[in-house]
């Protein structure tokens, strides 16, 4: 057997509102209290001197925490910097030792060509070691257009063979660390030849 729910007229009136209109029910519900009303407690006034002391204490704690943070960051920065210098030193010192050996060898043999050969060998060794750190020489080809982002013009001279603002020669190579410019390549560029 199934139970059927039978609505009485009273239940039906409650849903529509007490007088049978749906709008009346909403108004009556809004007027009914939701439950027991909590009594409002009187707000205690906080002592201004205590509040000031608490705020000062909080401020001093934040200032101390910030100072500790600053000191810790400074120590970590210094350690990181020293680690970088040690890494660079370990990378470059073998080339310096090779240079010393080249100078001693040239001094003993009195042969300038040996000195030049030794210095060139050290230069290649040094470049190779710098590349392990991510430092690379900027490639510059004579005849290419000058790029102010990586080239520094030391002087310009007229040229019949090379177009104006194109590189005639490299005076000193430039270097980058990844894509960051360390030093620009110093170049001599062509300028417009004066017509007489």
Describe the structure.
This protein is α+β, with helices and mostly antiparallel strands and 196 residues long. It has two domains: 50-132, no CATH class; 135-191, Nucleotide Exchange Factor Grpe, Chain A, domain 2 (Roll). The protein has helices at residues 9-16, 22-31, 48-109, 112-132, and strands spanning 135-137, 151-158, 167-172, 175-177, 180-183, 185-191. The strands form two sheets. It has a three-stranded antiparallel sheet with strand order 1-4-5. Strand 4 (175-177) and strand 5 form a beta hairpin. Helix 3 runs antiparallel to helix 4. The protein starts with 8 loop residues before the first helix and ends in a 5-residue tail after the last strand. The model is unreliable at 12-18 (pLDDT under 50).
In short:
The chain has 196 residues and is of the alpha+beta class. Helices cover 52% and strands 16% of the residues. Helix 3 packs antiparallel against helix 4.
Structural class: alpha+beta
Largest beta sheet, briefly? 3 strands, antiparallel
Basic shape: elongated
Total DSSP E strands: 6
Overall structural domain count: 2
- Distance between the ends: 121 Å
Main sheet: which strands, in order across?
1-4-5
Please give the count of helices: 4
Q: Can you give the mean pLDDT?
A: 81
Cα Rg: 43 Å
Strand content: 15-25%
Q: Please write the string of helix (H) and strand (E) elements.
A: HHHHEEEEEE
Contiguous low-pLDDT stretches (5 residues minimum) are 12-18
Helix content class: 40-55%
């Amino acid at each position: 057997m199934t139970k059927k729910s039978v609505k009485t007229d009273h239940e039906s009136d409650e849903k529509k509102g007490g007088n049978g209109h749906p709008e009346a029910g909403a108004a009556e519900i809004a007027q009914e209290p939701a439950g027991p009303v909590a009594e409002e407690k009187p707000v205690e006034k906080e002592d201004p001197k205590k509040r000031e002391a608490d705020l000062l204490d909080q401020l001093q704690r934040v200032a101390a925490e910030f100072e500790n943070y600053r000191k810790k960051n400074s120590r970590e920065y210094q350690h990181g910097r020293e680690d970088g210098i040690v890494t660079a030193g370990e990378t470059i010192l073998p080339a310096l030792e090779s240079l010393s050996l080249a100078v001693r060898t040239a001094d003993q043999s009195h042969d300038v060509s040996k000195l030049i050969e030794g210095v060139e060998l050290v230069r290649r060794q040094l470049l190779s070691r710098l590349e392990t750190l991510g430092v690379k020489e900027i490639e510059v080809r004579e005849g290419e257009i000058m790029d102010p982002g990586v080239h520094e013009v030391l002087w310009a001279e007229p040229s019949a063979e090379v177009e104006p603002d194109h590189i005639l020669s490299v005076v000193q190579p430039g270097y980058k660390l990844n894509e960051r410019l360390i030093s620009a390549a110093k170049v001599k560029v062509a300028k417009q030849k004066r017509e007489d």
